[in-house]
Design goal:
6 helices, about 350 residues, Naphthalene 1,2-dioxygenase Alpha Subunit, Chain A, domain 1, 7-stranded antiparallel β-sheet, Rieske Iron-sulfur Protein, alpha+beta
Amino acid sequence: MFLKNAWYVAAWSKEIEHRLKQIIVLNEKICVFRNSEGEVIALEDACPHRKLPLSKGRIKGDNVECGYHGLTFDCAGQCVWAPGTGRIPSAAKVRPYPVHEKYGLVWIWMGNSAIADPEDIIDIPNFDSAEWGINVGDAMELKCNYLLMCDNLLDPTHVAWVHEGSFAQAATRDTPLRVTKIENGVIVHRWMMNVEPAPFYKKIVEFDGYCDRLQHYEVRYPCHALIRAVFTPAGTGGPEGTLHEKTFIMDSYNFMTPVSESDTRYYWFQLRNVRPDDETLSKMMAEDVRAAFEEDRAVLNEVQIGMTNKTSPHIDLSIDAGQLRFRRQLEAMIAEEQLVDAKMGA
């Protein structure tokens, strides 16, 4: 089950060109392309005549021509030409999807287009700030349900075993977690005081010695995550601390797009408050983050297999509190949406 009335990442902006391309979001096949003005168009990828995907056809001006019998559709999904004589059938149309470009990504609204508001796309402070550097990821294909990655991004503890050579150090094993419910999601967080910086961050922070470290894992409905890492000299962090002038902050934004019940496309980028113009640092961070996320992919792909084929019940631990709270609320939101849709359909 998926939440339909929400913005999902359809693709990186650079992936959409003046040619037809099929993407799949929430099990729906969608034909995307740029029109002559560079705007992204998204249409149901199935001609209503014999259901050949429109992405197998051609762009004609700003219209799409089906590759089977030439039915032609405008950017609003309406058929403007069909072979034969007489009127174009009223059912000769395909669904158009609202889309919006922001943060170098193409966002798509999968539900009721009448309530699609680009203002509801996640707000990312400092994205265009000259004082913050950025390293951009790519799109990773996961052979698992999107909620398994949401679980992963509400689970600071897993880094102790999955990311031993990058994000882990001793305190990530057993420092207690705090769970906070917010209006649009769940936060799992903890301060680890007077600890050694983890290997990945040790190469970036601009101070020597031990640190106070914040792991802030936040996932917003339906599946967008902010992972904030804060490293500040020991004695300056904590909930009541005053961050040092050399405090390092990395905001990692992660977007999971459900392709199907068992496939996910995963997008990400990181913002940092140090050395914004250092291309070497950006390259190093992008490569190291990608390597860490490959570790996540290897684990989650196997978890999907294990959960699908399990022969005994799985268990939950106290460290799963944030994940379980997120799933319960999302399930309630989906159920409410389906109830409203059923009533409107009646």
